[in-house]
């Protein structure tokens, strides 16, 4: 049943209508003043307040908390044995194996599995599952790709609570330089970094001596903290045993660590038998035991060590290029190079800009220094042999990087342009023979490909705002680490075009190296010939050359000064005389005899004074001055005859 009621009244009749009218104001409440409240009244200065009709907005920042990751190891032991058998006892395990091998079920199972295994082995021999069918297309894509690099990780000091992306935090407040980098030899996810302050007398009392091993997959904290007795300047992984590292300290000591035994050094060399200056280079040698290494320092010594007995060096070499073996004449080593394919040879870069090539197996110490290269104006910060052509090596120093050949001693075969900032480190690519890397003091990483460009780098990347101090490339050639002066280590991934061997690259690089080496040999022969001619000419002059060589430099300087002032004074007197004659010739009743000066005019700017400086003030004074000058100047016979005729 539906109930419907219809209203038929008008809308104006609903509710009470409002009625508005005009009327005068009326006082509803009047509160008179209370005199008793006057004592509580406090005078105030007028206060202006403003109100803005806008909504209040507050800014908030939210950052997610980093996941704390901790690495833990699990020790797997041999299992599956019955409880009554001890796996450590050889006799019990052999007896149990013989018992099992006699079981028929064991024999049937092995026969069944052997058939399946045989089928899989034959299948693998018939088909290469790793064969690349489209290698040529990939190479074409690589060639078209422009060179580039991107930052994948930053290992920096702790500057704020929220630090840089994927940053490894060094808990030390005092900034130290990342002096050396070393990649783990077996895996590419660990990096050992040596930290020290190399500035003179800048070490503070609270400065830490610690260096770190970073795990690139765990960005929260170092995997291991190395605690040396002095800050580490160099640090290297042992290529044969990845658990062992050797380091050179700032005070000249050598130390080695075993990561399985913690962060304290296993053994440290004695101070008396160590280097006297910071150890800038420490390299492992290719030996059967894998325990031998050698080091170089700015004290002018190269020392060989065996970590099984690190208390004293096994061998030493003084870097005296005069081959006298005197330590006071030795050149300070700042870089060290060793190529495993040439086990007896090594090279040392010195503070004086000279590269010393050495041979360890020479009979006498003077013969160990085989040759020298005058390479740079300043210290040689980096030396590296080309991994494809060991006779070609790279040196980095002053404002240039230079490529040398062992066959040319006097000059490099190739070199870069002079940069505006100092070069600090460099290395070759491990996969491309024509590519090398350099770092600069303005924080720039340069990638050079001399088959593509010779005058400018193929890629220049601004890594950071502080100077870069160290450089290290992974063995796969794709990731490079750059250490800075303030302790930041930046990891860069290089584009595939710079880390993939190009077509015919080895052939082209070989041709370029041979051509440039041949050109330098021709130039060296020409210079040698010119020097011989000059020497023969000087010997033919005889005693004149000897007297000239024996003349005192101070006498030469005094004579040149005296001749210069004589020429200047003669020119001044000549000009004064000419001006005086011009002025006196205008005075009536006076006649003068003109003499022609044969003195050659001086070049402009050398003793040529302005006329106003030599103006004549009085005619009589000019006459007396000119007479005195003519009596002092030497006169030729022709001038005297002309005066007599006049």
From TrEMBL:
<keyword id="KW-0963">Cytoplasm</keyword>
<dbReference type="GO" id="GO:0003341">
    <property type="term" value="P:cilium movement"/>
</dbReference>
<dbReference type="GO" id="GO:0005874">
    <property type="term" value="C:microtubule"/>
</dbReference>
<feature type="region of interest" description="Disordered">
    <location>
        <begin position="621"/>
        <end position="646"/>
    </location>
</feature>
<keyword id="KW-0243">Dynein</keyword>
<keyword id="KW-0505">Motor protein</keyword>
<dbReference type="GO" id="GO:0036158">
    <property type="term" value="P:outer dynein arm assembly"/>
</dbReference>
<dbReference type="GO" id="GO:0045503">
    <property type="term" value="F:dynein light chain binding"/>
</dbReference>
<keyword id="KW-0677">Repeat</keyword>
<keyword id="KW-0969">Cilium</keyword>
<keyword id="KW-0493">Microtubule</keyword>
<comment type="similarity">
    <text>Belongs to the dynein intermediate chain family.</text>
</comment>
<dbReference type="InterPro" id="IPR050687">
    <property type="entry name" value="Dynein_IC"/>
</dbReference>
<dbReference type="GO" id="GO:0045504">
    <property type="term" value="F:dynein heavy chain binding"/>
</dbReference>
<dbReference type="InterPro" id="IPR001680">
    <property type="entry name" value="WD40_rpt"/>
</dbReference>
<protein>
    <submittedName>
        <fullName>DNAI2 protein</fullName>
    </submittedName>
</protein>
<keyword id="KW-0853">WD repeat</keyword>
<dbReference type="InterPro" id="IPR036322">
    <property type="entry name" value="WD40_repeat_dom_sf"/>
</dbReference>
<keyword id="KW-0966">Cell projection</keyword>
<dbReference type="InterPro" id="IPR015943">
    <property type="entry name" value="WD40/YVTN_repeat-like_dom_sf"/>
</dbReference>
<dbReference type="GO" id="GO:0036157">
    <property type="term" value="C:outer dynein arm"/>
</dbReference>
<keyword id="KW-0206">Cytoskeleton</keyword>
